[in-house]
Predict the 3D structure of the following.
Amino acid sequence: MTEDLPPYLRRKRSRRYVGEGVLRAEDECLLRGGGGFLGDLPAPDTAEICIVRSLEPHAVVRAIRTSRALENPGVLAILTADDLDLAEDVLPCVDMIPGTLDVRQHVMARDRVRYVGQAVAVVVAVDRYLAEDAAALVEIDYEKLPPVIDHMAAIDPGGTLLYPELGTNVVFQSTQQDGNAGFAPGDGDLVIRRRFEFHRQTGVPMETRGVMARHVNGGARLHVMSPTQLPQVLRRVLASALGMSLDRVRVTAPRIGGGFGCKEMVYPEEILVPAVARKLQRTVRWIEDRREHFACSAQAREETVDAEAVVASDGTFLGLRLTGWANIGAAFGYVPNTPITAMAAMVRGPYRVPNFDARMFSVVTNKAPLNVLRGAGAPQAALVMERLLDEAAQRLAIDRAEIRRRNLIQPNELPLDRGRTDFADAGRIVYDEGDYPRCLEAALIRAEYEQFESERREAAERGKLRGLGISMYVEITAVGPFETARITLQPDGTILLYSSIMPIGQGSETTQRQLVAEELGITMEEIAIRQGDTDEVPDGVGTFASRGAAVGGGVGRMAARQLVETILNDLAAELACDRAALAWEAGGVTLPDGFIPMAEIPFRLATLRQTAQPEKIEARYRLEVLRPSYSYAAHIAVLEIDPETGRMEIPRYTVAHDCGKIVNPLLVEGQIVGGVVQGIGAVLRERLVYNAGGDLQTRAMMDYVLPGASDVPADFRLWHMETPTSLNPFGMRGVGEGGTIGAHAAIANAVADALRDYDVTVDGSGPFTPTWIMEALNRPLRFPGETTYKPTE
Amino acid sequence: MKGPDADEAQTALSVVVNGKQLHASVPDRLLLSDFLRDHLGLTALKVACGEGACGACTIVIDGEPARSCTLLALQTEGSQIVTLEGINAPQGLNHVQQLFQQHHALQCGYCTPGWLMTVYTMVERSIDPNSAEVGQYLSGHLCRCTGYRNIWTAVRRALETTLKTTKDQPTGEKE
């Protein structure tokens, strides 16, 4: 009977959106090169800024001389900290807890510099070339202080202090406990003690940062453009920094060329560029170059963790005790203490480990400020747990899959309260629904785990070292505290969604439109979306912590639901009929005697109201997130080393994961594969290097080896599980970071397994470069002629 | 303050960009990427590393893929330059772009124009999709989002279709 139905009803019945691999609408613009990134925006009559940055890691600033630079052609102004006229010059940090010592960063250095790259002076010129010429002529007199580089040395009393007035370099501490925190090993229990080292990395989005600021309405308002994951937060900070009322500041975030957490921060340049625009009463722009990016965009991951695990002889983990120290650099970023707190919050992952005692510290050093990077601290946490599991399996001669089975939390134990935490806004870690054992088994089958030993032998016959690494994690996603959205039915009968979630490559334009189309029973083509303008969405939290689809998409869909209510109420009032007689069905309103398709509603209302023009109908929604939800996965990496060259290949990589209800499997797969390759890069390639003197040796992409096209696993196997969470109205959890989290531990375990006959320890994130491998292989065999453990077959 | 260009040496430049003959006077030290983006408004190419390491600024000069961020504009005197704007269809997506969309071979899209210029060259040269040459071409580009897997798929499909079209053509049609 479908042919009798009007087109909009046929359309509805033939098409659902949630769960479909819909191609991205945003691709057309990007593929034609019309991206609309900050550097692409028209910038007529715009002065360019070059920032003079400290070349000293730790020094007192005695004098800044600008007279020679001011003489240079094209220079409009040179400003230092006191010239910015700031009402407030401290940048926000949102994860300080009671007892935290305040080392929030100032917009510009005044009397002291604490890391290479810190902003000292600002040169404004008519173009970038001339600004750089002049910047080279700014002279700064420094009185050098000893640099503090190693966080483990920095915690020693009596050493150099970054902030002498605080009396310590340890500025934050957090404790997390569960069960009997005073646990001790019993007779026959195995005790494993390990120190894990995690090296410093950075996100390296392909687009660097940048800020453009201009006065509008004759100086009445300031319009700031920045590719930030937090436009609403930036607006609030800017208003108080500049001493302007909130309504006089507008922040727009153009399209973002990759974020990964790097753009989840309020940076000094986001205050100082607008301050310069205000001071000079003209449009100014600063585009970060790659060397600046390495020096002063958020750095990540660096920490040391001491672990002590008590394991029963059957492989059951009885207790885990951790002490961790994060090297957070010279000052607080936006969430500098989150990575080390995440270590305590998430280290146990899907495993029981009933007794737990963790103490975590943040330590200041003369490096650039630390912030989150994809996965926050969860990659390190999973690596600690998974290395301990492999170590226990080896020492107790238990198969690696089996020891995990014996420790996994069972579905009937969920939801599970894992105790109080200082992590994010979680309050307590309470796992929601899931089936961790099924996830592990799904991965083992797809990875052909049971056949691996014959694969290893076959590789050995070819002279190659093949190893396999398993990892599992539980990840906190879709964090609160809230999110807002606004939606309108436009006078022309189409839908316009205003979202506070930023497009950073994850496809939020498409997923959010899919969710609204599904809710309203219309096509995606009838929905437009606008993002990143604080005039349109003044209140919002931002794009991070894998919350875009689950929280941002959820609130958009709830706003659409609210819009339906508004429309039905308006129509009932105008038609003078019972509201209950009206229903929203299949993209329109069913009346007792007919049907009004959505596109005709504004016109119909205008007719009923006898107004000249159709008007838009608007609804807003604010979604309170009471608790985050927890995604999980099992990763299995197979890695092969060529002992002649140290070259590594990943012949097979398997992921079984559960992010709840999937909106778009094509994009979920894209997030996971991209995340895994970032994790591979982290453990096998990337490293930010500061020398002992505190100078940053990593100055260009040539110095920081990112994974390339040849680093892709040859055979990538992905298995989706979809256990809806009860914590989200649509069952969704987050997925953006999981690939990176799981890959750290899976690759580290695979490296250790491939080298199991050699006397090496894989206690940390490496990176396990070919050089590292060759050094490892040149050591004597641990037990010549025999393997160190034999998995059950 | 002196005038902006007081000390800047300028030189005449004659170059063909996307089929159009241009005569300009440019500062000697002006980078080709800045010339194309800021002076000509051809903003499809992106600058990401500024040292020729990542491929985001790739354009085609006299038939060869080249990094516009490590060349001076003046080095292109007398050359034929093609940028992404020059191979875009009048509207919508060309064949290779469609394949990138279908295989989700882009996420943030910042590196994408550079890849497309290299793939354009590979298609022009009818590179065998199964040859080791493919990896050599792709190794010149970095992407931080996709993990490359879908880029490989899109590129192989693009080359397969070209190969097929080339074979279908009557002999002698192609050089």
Notes: The mean pLDDT of chain B is 91. Residues 159 and 165 of chain B are 10 Å apart (CA to CA). The longest helix of chain B spans residues 149-168.
